[in-house]
Design goal:
Blueprint lengths: L1 H14 L3 E4 L11 H16 L3 E4 L15 H7 L4 E2 L23 E4 L2 E6 L6 H18 L4 E7 L14 H8 L4 E5 L5 E3 L2 E3 L16 E8 L3 E8 L5 E7 L6 H13 L10 E10 L8 H12 L3 E10 L3 H9 L13 H14 L8 H16 L4 H15 L10
Parallel strand pairs: 1-2, 2-3, 5-6, 6-7, 7-9, 12-13, 13-14
Antiparallel strand pairs: 4-5, 8-9, 10-11
Helix pairs in contact: 1-2, 6-7, 9-10, 10-11
GO molecular function: exonuclease activity
Organism: candidate division MSBL1 archaeon SCGC-AAA259O05
Keywords: Exonuclease, Hydrolase, Nuclease
């Protein structure tokens, strides 16, 4: 990730831009190590030395686990390496004005005739906060009207990535009508909807993401036309997918030389160290405890010279067969139209069985299974645990009989 970030900064400086909009997730994890922080500080310092202002909001990966903690983005703000923006929904004014000699985080900033409002990651609460965001923008702009207005925010839009939760399209469009440009972060794939622009991440973080358009935008102010927008693809590391079927081996000792042989055939595919997504698939003929995933990761790194290896265990144990037969005998639909196992349907069937075994949810196992699947999707798409808990509490109240103690927290 360091190389793609440095390359983006190089291109920004060469282009001679006035300011940079960073829509969250500067970091991929809250647990930032010293080397990662050093890279962030050094690259932001390069921009500062060139008089390029960086305006940012926090993403879900940037924020501290607890609100009272100083986040890494707040730290960089206090170091004057970027200007962090955040909306304040507890006060009278959603967007706090910028002030000189003030380390507190403002809600908006004016730069080169452009007013930028910032809204941090809010999870599922973002949609319900849209009316206050609109009121806040209108209130500030009624005082002094800028040439152009930008909303810098960290949220996704429904329908852009299958299975990923986001703000409904009609709500996002309503929000966009209040400004000239919406600069988004959160989803790692590029998409545009009118004045809404999401550039995608600089780096791919999975095999699927490697196929997506990603990068950043250059914006020019055009008289009477708002912004002229050009997307720049990021220059990131080669990303490859390696699949290996374990079904031909009955023991780990048979499996290892077969795997090494398959990697040997892939060596010539790479002119530089790749990021590898390794998927193990097929029917596992021995105990899962004997499947050493660390060995596969280390062997792939050694033989392919990989920078990073992500191991996905998609193998199926022969011990699962009785469960599949049992579910099918109960009438559960767990197969795809082509006759193969549908993992989403299997997940739903298993969740429904778990719910049916709980007497509190008698007759509502299907709804409970849906809530369990929703919680899983929310967590996989980076929703905060508190947001997931709030959603589950709401669902639980729906499932429990009215007025019963079971529905109370």
């Amino acid at each position: 990730m360091r190389a793609s970030f440095e390359d983006a900064v190089d291109r920004i400086i060469d282009e001679g831009v006035y300011f940079v909009l960073l829509a969250g997730d500067l970091f991929h994890s809250r647990d930032v190590d010293a080397e990662t922080l050093d890279v962030a500080e050094s690259q932001l310092s390069r921009l500062k030395d060139e008089n390029v202002e960086v305006i940012a909001v926090e993403g879900n990966h940037d924020a501290g686990l607890y609100r009272e903690e100083l986040s890494w983005m707040e730290y960089l703000h206090k170091k004057n390496l970027l200007t962090l923006l955040a909306a304040d929904f507890d006060g009278d004014s959603v967007f706090r004005p910028p002030a000189l000699d003030d380390e507190e985080v403002p809600g908006y900033v004016n730069c080169e005739g452009v007013r930028v409002f910032g809204v941090q990651y809010l999870g599922q609460r973002f949609t319900e906060r849209i009316p206050r965001i609109l009121e806040g923008i209108e209130s500030v702009n009624d005082g002094t009207e800028p040439k152009l207005t930008v909303l810098l925010a960290h949220f996704g839009v429904s329908g852009q990535i299958p299975g990923a939760l986001g703000v409904p399209v009609n709500k996002a469009r309503k929000l966009a009508k209040s400004v000239d440009y919406v600069a988004l972060g959160h989803f790692h794939r590029r998409f545009e909807m009118g004045s809404i622009h999401n550039p995608g991440s600089l780096e791919a973080h999975s095999r699927r993401q490697a196929e997506w358009e990603r990068g950043f935008y250059f914006l020019d102010v055009a008289p009477e036309k708002g912004f002229l927008v050009a997307h720049e693809s990021s220059r990131d590391r080669p990303y490859c997918s390696v699949r290996f079927d374990v079904g031909s081996s009955d023991t780990p000792s048979e499996l290892k030389p077969d795997f090494e042989s398959s990697l040997e055939k892939r060596k010539r595919d790479f002119s530089q160290p790749p990021v590898v997504s390794l998927t193990l698939e097929g029917d596992l003929g021995f105990s899962r405890e004997e499947l050493n995933l660390n060995w596969f990761e280390n062997m792939t790194e050694d033989m392919l010279g990989a920078l990073h290896v992500v191991v996905n265990d998609a193998t199926e144990s022969t011990a699962v067969s009785p469960l599949l037969e049992e579910l099918e005998s109960e009438g559960a639909e767990i197969s795809s139209g082509q006759g193969s196992l549908d993992r989403d349907k299997l997940e739903g069937a298993v969740f429904e069985r778990i719910a049916a075994d709980d007497s509190r949810y008698s007759g509502k196992s299907e709804e409970v299974a849906g809530a369990m699947s929703l919680a899983k999707r929310m967590l996989l798409t980076g929703e905060e645990p508190t947001s997931v808990a709030e959603e589950l509490k709401s669902k639980r109240r729906d499932f429990s009989p009215t007025g019963s103690e079971e529905g109370k927290e």
